[in-house]
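Running this now, will post back.
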Amino acid sequence: MSIPRQLSLGEVIGQKKGKAQPKLRPVSPGRPRRELDVELLRELRAKGYGYKRIAGEYTALTGQYISHTTVRARLGDS
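Update: finished.
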């Protein structure tokens, strides 16, 4: 009769030693990004405006509100 050994954390009886393969989770598409006129953002940035001023001008020109954080993120991406 053999002496049963203690199982390590996460180890299951009948499973071979080694790292357990993690289950792949389906990738969620996340929240959709709002369509923005990035060219307009670039034009306003070229005028020397800051992110808050660009956000205000964009809202005034298009009627579509965006935050200065969104402006910063989109100008950094492109």
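The longest helix spans residues 51-62. More later if anyone needs it.
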